[in-house]
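Let us work through a complete example step by step.
Step 1: write down the sequence.
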Amino acid sequence: MTAADQVASVRYIVDDVQAAIDFYTTHLGFTLNISAAPAFADVVRGPLRLLLSGPTSSGARATPEQAAGAGRNRIHLVVDDLDTEIARLRDAGLPFHSDVVTGPGGRQILLADPAGNLIELFQPATTS
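Step 2: predict the structure and record it as tokens.
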């Protein structure tokens, strides 16, 4: 594991820790760091440590009931070729939650993990 000052940790509340582990490691290039499933696991991709907290974890129990559902916040994963990633994930049967959106900074699309937490795949615009 990278030193704590070199990673950013984000907690996602999930319904099924093992399903979340499988989703992130199979489809999005994360590696499993710690598993205490079914309560908790963390997966890592570069400087991002994603804390997957199941219903019995302390992180989930500390969440107020009115904030228990997945929100509009999302992790942002930069990809080299958005079209290739979309095709690969569609071939794996994953549904997307938006169309591709293009702006001055690049192109993006949203998908969700098994608990409904959003993931943004983003390809930066090329600079000339």
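Step 3: interpret the result. The first strand starts at residue 8 and ends at 13.
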